[in-house]
Each structure stands twice: as structure tokens, then as C-alpha cells.
Specification:
2 copies of one chain form a homodimer.
Chain A: H1 15-25, E1 35-36, H2 38-44, E2 47-52, H3 62-71, H4 75-78, E3 82-85, H5 89-101, E4 105-110, H6 115-123, E5 127-131, H7 138-149, E6 152-153, H8 160-179, E7 186-190, H9 195-207, E8 212-218, H10 223-230, H11 254-263, E9 266-270, H12 272-286, H13 296-302, E10 312-317, H14 324-335
Helix pairs in contact in A: 1-3, 1-8, 3-5, 3-8, 5-6, 8-9, 9-11, 12-13, 12-14
């Protein structure tokens, strides 16, 4: 069986792949709205357009890439199912997509993932294999399971089908901003491995090339920001910690970085305290539930990492899968 | 000075007043989206369309009525400002609208209102006068202040200008459902004094007359439900309690009931436990922050108060102004 390596070659997807993904996702994914808050605009001194992927099926943008990628699996390989490794949002995306295609799914997840992510992944019908973070490579583990089952490994970001699926989010942002008569100066994208950023960048290169695109990452896990500056893929220093569980990828993806290096303007990093403040702001002003990793772009705006005065800025809230205790703690800490 | 009684005569607004309100609100109020969740649809066995007025300016639908009503104040009365009495959402709506018109505002609020509502009302620049709930009539107090200042009293619901403003919410729901190709069997509206329900009912009578409209109220404060059944305005029994602070009006409004009696199909009541479960569901599945009073319609659907199987149902999430502790407590209690 070679299905685990199907179409994961490092060929970047093109704009046409994103259009095909959008067609595949129609009626399956949510066309999330583009929101605007008078209060946030006033605070930023500009126009901030919010893409709440927290409202996406499975509570994060990851469903887009997963559903698109699974749709690319050849008919003869579908019965053997899929295997994924993920800290939780890709897990839910793959599990929900697999259920819709009627394919079995096995997901390798860290044992310390948020309880809501593990429960939801199981809830979509997937088998979950927990591992201790920091132990044997989760990729190797997923590959071993896939080899045994003859299943297809669905990588979280470094895969053209995943990138194309995430690109549909960028496609929607551009069209929705256009419908509002807004010319986007800047797009901020939450970044772990770089799948959402690279997908959005490919879409924007076609439909809104003048918009400058930046990643936002947790401080200490700002490998993409540093790599963009250095011009090569750099790893995060060991021993870092952040409660942005969704954004702890060790290095930029090879495929995603090749795209991001070409198309992005740079990156920002935010502290956990800045993220907690953004979660509190989302709660009390925007009335949205955002998980730590999903709040980094809002944190960048609120903390003044970029000059938003007189600018039109779109930002992603990439996910909302957060345990109630973690959320309440962040809202309390971030409100002071 | 007679400005405190300006245009509060009991003449119901018509459809044209709602269209005029929509024009007045354009660019000032948020056109909140109509959201849909695969998970909620699956659970309800039907199609549930969510109107999240939590995303409205000031965090509740009340801004609609307030901004519209203040726009109807004659030019010569504006400098003297407005006075309102409110448990908190109307307070914020009037305060924010007054700031936009450059009018001074004084708001009479119960001392036990959620801290976020008092703080936000002050934040919009209004003077806040607190009173002990159960003490002297808040209406009398507001009238006394208005008489002293020569200001206009802006009632929370029993006013044609308020009802017309809230009706713009119904106008949007009908148009947005239409754009989705959805024929609404049912519309559920959160109900305190009946302003939102009556406004939506006038709009729907014109644009979607086949839709059955129901109020949802907290148990013990289901005066509108009981009044609709009895055919006359009934008061709530004394000594009741509910944490739905926004929906504790003692009786249906005279104006609003005259409309609701003619146009509504009936009402439902939900317990505080059912409301907490809805707040928890909104948090964990919908990723939305909803205050207790804003969650009653969702509670009615989740608790099976009506048969949603095979039906298309729109519901309002009327407000999201809730203190973090109250929210966390409800999410914890509602998750079990």
C-alpha cells in the first residue's frame, strides 16, 4: 500500500485548486460571516473585519482542509480510511469529514489536549490514540498505524489538498470585504504550521494582491515569523511553553513555508497575557468564544503590534474549542 | 414641559415605520448575520436559523429601538436629553444612541443589574442612577428626573418608536432566511415587555405572514404567554426569581400586548436550568456568549418545548451582556 503518500508531493496548490475546494465544500462547510464591531473599530482607530472560523463546522477552520483533502483520496483507497495526528482541531476536522464520507478515521492526539477536543473527535466517530507529548514522534506513530491499516495519512498542514481547503477561508474574506466596500490593507492569519496562512496567501495573490499578509504566532513559537526574516525554516527553541495549544508546531511546514516565504509580508508574536486579554475582549465586547490559539490575531491588534490607525485590517479567529475552565481563567486574567 | 410624553400614544407602528427605522439605522446598527450550525440542526432534527443580536451594537437588540426612538425626538427637545429606566440592555442602547446624537442621557437602573451592564452604560457617557429593586417605581423616578430636566423619557418597550426599531430585527431575519432559501415555519422571540416580539410580528405580518411567532420567557415571568392564552394582560405572581435579568418585566406592555395578541401564535416558558444548559451549549457548540435572558429561545429548542423535527425555525439570541462569573457558573451548571 502506498496510499499514505498519495498526493503529498511538495507541489504548491494553485488558485484553481482553491476554487475546486470551494466547490467541494459548498453546502458542507459554513460560509462564516465577516463581522465588524463599532467598539473594536473605535479602539483600533481603523476598520477591523473579523473572520470567525469559530463558527465553522467543528469549531475551527480545519474542517475546510480536511474535507477537501479527504475528497481527493482515490475511490479505491477510501475503505481503508484515514489516519491523522493533531493537537485537536485538525483531529476534529478529519473526524467530521471522514464521517461525512463514510470513511473510518484514527487520530493520534496528545494526552494533554483540551478535553473538548478529544471528546468532540470521538464524538464524530473517530478512534483516538493518545500519546504523551514529547514522547515518540506523532508522525511516526501515525505512519505506523496507517501502514498497518493501509490507510491514508492526512497531514495537518504540509499537504496541497489541505492548503487548498484552508485557502477557501481567504477566498471568502476577500469576497466579503469586497461586498462591504472594504479594501483590505492587511490580513492577519493565526499560524501553527502555516496551512491557513499559505492557503489564504494563494487566494489573495489572485483576488487581492495589494493586501499585506502577516502571520501571528505565540511568543516562543514564532518559528514562521523568524523563518520569514531569516529566509529559511527555523525551529523553535526547546523548553518554551504557551497555552495556545493549537499553535505549537515545531517548525514551519516545508510546503507551507515555500508558499509563505514567497507571499507573506512578515509575522508577529504575542504573549500568553496578550492572548488572555484578547479572549477576555472577545468575551465581553465581541461576545465570541475564542480558544487561545484562535485569539492571537485579535491579540496582535489589541496589543498594538501593528499600526491599525486609518487602516482596514481583516483577521482570523481560527478556532473556539476551549475548555470552560481554561476560558474562564483567561477571561478573568485578561480582564484586569 | 411636556416632552416626557411625546409620541408615546398607544398607536401601533405600521410596516412603513419599520422600513423608516431600517433606513434610520443603516450604517449605525449592525446587520447581524443569520447563523446556522450543523450540530444544532442535527440535534433539533430540523433547520434552526440563529439571529445573534449579541453581535449588535451594545451587545443586544435594544440599540435598534433606542436609536430609532431618539431619532424621532423633535429637534427642539434634543438638547434637554433623554431619561430611561432599564435593567441594563435598554440602558446601554439608549446611552449609546444618545452619544451618537450628541444628547445627554440619564439612566435609572437597579443596583443589582449585572456589573457589565452598569459599566457599559456609564462607558457610553450616560449618567446612571441606581435604585434598589423593589423600592419606589422606577418609572416614577425616571419621570421625576425627566420633569426636572425637561428631558424625554424613553420607555423600554411600550412606545411605537421603540417597537418599530426592534422590528428591523424581524425584517432582517425574514430577508436573510429568504436569501438562504428557507421558508420559516416558526419564529421564536425572547420576551420581557414584548417590544422585540411585537416589532418582529409587524414585520413578519407583511413579509412572511405564514410564519408562526412565539415568545419565550423565563418560567415565573411568562406573563405574555399566560396573557396570550387568557386574552388579557396578566401580571406575574410576586416572589418569583430568575437569573434572566433582562426579562423580568411585571406585565406585558399595553401597546406591545395589543400587537402581540393580534399577531402571535402563543408563548413558551423555560426554567433557569434549561437556560443554563442553553448558555453552555452556546459556549461549547455555537461558540457564542449569550446572557441568560438572551438564551431562552435556544433553551426552548434544546429542551424540546416545541416540535422542531422537519421544521425551519428562526430564533433570536437577544443579548450577550453577562458577567464572567455568571457566565462561567451557568456553563458549568449547564454542562452536566
Amino acid at each position: 500500500m502506498t496510499s499514505s503518500s498519495v498526493s503529498t508531493a511538495e507541489t504548491p496548490p494553485g488558485y484553481s485548486d482553491i476554487l475546486a475546494a470551494a466547490k467541494r465544500l459548498a453546502g458542507k462547510a459554513v460560509v462564516t460571516p465577516l463581522l465588524e464591531s463599532h467598539a473594536l473599530n473605535a479602539r483600533a482607530g481603523g476598520r477591523i473585519l473579523i473572520k470567525p472560523e469559530i463558527l465553522q463546522r467543528t469549531g475551527s477552520f480545519k474542517f475546510r482542509g480536511a474535507y477537501n483533502r479527504l475528497g481527493l483520496i482515490p475511490a479505491e483507497d477510501r475503505a481503508a480510511g484515514v489516519v491523522a495526528f493533531s493537537s485537536g482541531n485538525h483531529a476534529q476536522g478529519v473526524a467530521a469529514a471522514a464521517a461525512l464520507y463514510g470513511m473510518p478515521a484514527t487520530i493520534v492526539m496528545p494526552a494533554d489536549a483540551p478535553a473538548i477536543k478529544i471528546a468532540n473527535t470521538r464524538g464524530y466517530g473517530a478512534a483516538v490514540e493518545l500519546y504523551e507529548r514529547g514522547s515518540a514522534s506523532r508522525e511516526a506513530r501515525a505512519e505506523a498505524i496507517a501502514a498497518k491499516l493501509g490507510a491514508t495519512v492526512v497531514r495537518p498542514y504540509d499537504d496541497p489538498g489541505i492548503v487548498a481547503g484552508q485557502g477557501t477561508c481567504g477566498l471568502e474574506i476577500a469576497a466579503q470585504a469586497d461586498a462591504l466596500g472594504a479594501q483590505l490593507d492587511t490580513l492577519l492569519v493565526c499560524c501553527g504550521g502555516g496551512g491557513l496562512a499559505s492557503g489564504c496567501a494563494i487566494a489573495f495573490a489572485e483576488v487581492s494582491p495589494a493586501t499585506k499578509i502577516y502571520t501571528v504566532e505565540p511568543a516562543g513559537f514564532d518559528d514562521t515569523r523568524r523563518s520569514l526574516t531569516a529566509g529559511e525554516r527555523l525551529a523553535n527553541a526547546p523548553g518554551q511553553a504557551s497555552f495556545c495549544d493549537a499553535l505549537l508546531a515545531p517548525t514551519p511546514g516545508a510546503l507551507t513555508f515555500s508558499i509563505n516565504q514567497r507571499l507573506l509580508a512578515g509575522g508577529f508574536a504575542v504573549s500568553d497575557a496578550e492572548v488572555a486579554a484578547a479572549m477576555a475582549y472577545a468575551f465581553s465586547v465581541l461576545k465570541l468564544v475564542v480558544e487561545p490559539g484562535g485569539a492571537v490575531c485579535l491579540a496582535a491588534v489589541l496589543a498594538g503590534k501593528l499600526d491599525t490607525r486609518g487602516k482596514t485590517v481583516a483577521l482570523t479567529l481560527s478556532g473556539g474549542n476551549v475548555d470552560p475552565e481554561t476560558h474562564a481563567k483567561a477571561v478573568a486574567a485578561g480582564s484586569v
